[in-house]
Amino acid sequence: MQTKIFAPALIAALLASSVFAADKPVAVVNGVAIPQAQMDFVLKQLAERGAKDSPELRAKIRDDMITKEVIAQEAAKQGLAKDADVQVETAMAQQNVMLKAFVQNYQKSNVIPEAALKAEFEKLKTQMPSKEYHARHILVETEKEANELIAALKKGKKFEDLAKEKSKDTGSKVNGGDLGWAAPTNFVKEFGDAMVKLAKGQVTQAPVKSQFGFHVIKLEDVRQPQGPAFDEVKAGLQQQVQGQNLDKLIADLKAKAKVE
Question: Which fold has domain 129-223?
């Protein structure tokens, strides 16, 4: 019976002691308390980077805080807080903290609705090329070399073998001149214009000159663009649209500000 009578009081005492522990400073250095809130803030930042809370981690953070407080107190004793450069840097640091807080608060308070993100996604899809091309090429220095390659191809030489042997494009020659899938705009204009005129499996019948030299091009295939799914780009779109809206807000704030 006695245990039951005193149990609530005991619980209350334990709760009170836990609250006191939470409010207890991390350390007191020359009479100056380092609040627990600072420890919690550092732990939160480290946790976001993948660090795990542990007594060893807290001990290290505590030691770092004490070191910084000792140095800060000594700097204050030396009157460095009155130094003009220190005051400027302190003001700028405070401004940067406020800027970070403003951006983070905006991102939390202005989440873009999924419907708006899907609309932006559809808009971006309309800007994608209508077709993608899978091509190979052989790049050489002179028109004469390119014509010789075209003649060799007509005699039955394999395009891939000639590319590996003759092409000066070191990036594609090891793969038989393979350039993968790409839109025509990914290439220099002369190359793209010649490529889109080819039928599947066809090779250019005349050398294609560009700033890099002379190309012999083979078109392997054509397809509709294989863009990413909405869910794959949703997070990126959220950041992009939020960033655009935030830029507009900042521009509006600057326009309304009285600048002399």
Answer: Chitinase A; domain 3 (3.10.50)
